[in-house]
Amino acid sequence: MPRCTEYEQVTKFRNHLVFRQHLNKPLFIPKEGRFVLQYLEDEGLRRMEQELEKLSKLGSAWAAAVLGCICLVHQAEGCPDSDRAIALCESHAKAGDPYALFVYAWALKHKGQRVAAVRAMEKAAKLGFPPATLDFVTFVWRGWGVTERSPRVARLLLRKAFRAHHASAMGWLAGMYRSGQFGRMRWMLSWLMVPVAAIWQSCAMIRDPFSCRVFSLTTAWRSPIFRTPE
Fold first, then answer.
1. How far, CA to CA in Å, does 133 sit from each of 102, 150, 194?
2. CATH classification of 6-207 is 1.25.40.10, yes or no?
3. Structural domain boundaries in the chain
4. Chain centroid to CA 137
5. Which end of the chain is more exposed for a tag (fewer CB within 10 A), N or C?
6. What is the pTM of this model?
């Protein structure tokens, strides 16, 4: 495997420091957009949002999607601003951008439009977007927007998350087995899987906390993404 250059190593270390100082949860920012982290580091979240807003108005799908995520899980009052997220991401979602589709799906879900939400999430998953391959499983597992809740179908769909190398895939599978819905043997196996899944996820987070392979909105609702109270 090719070794990282010294510049790449320094960049990864700096990104990890920014993550530790400013975020509670992973947030996907594509590599071409990582420069916005400098605004977060130097001037705070509001300044980074201003830059994302500017990029979004210039037509950047990834900037609109990042802003959409912030609208959904970083509101001071704890209520997702679904309308704002939809306004930011709808046009990009309809154009087929997987990140925008993913955020759009969650925004629709919080608006109560579950059928439209699961369709958007499925499209993003079919495009191979790792967070969507994982969160689509959440929709099916919990019966959001589907005709019938199906744990077994959800487990089959999780294979796509494994193929997309999402770091939380094994943890999700362990959680399914711990539910007891797949028999006693798999329930017992789940307790062995949990520490392995935790190590796998932690290693992925250390490598790149802004990667699409560690990001998911399924687990982001318990606390805001950002530490800063801005």
1. 10, 16, 20
2. yes
3. 6-207
4. 13
5. N
6. 0.89
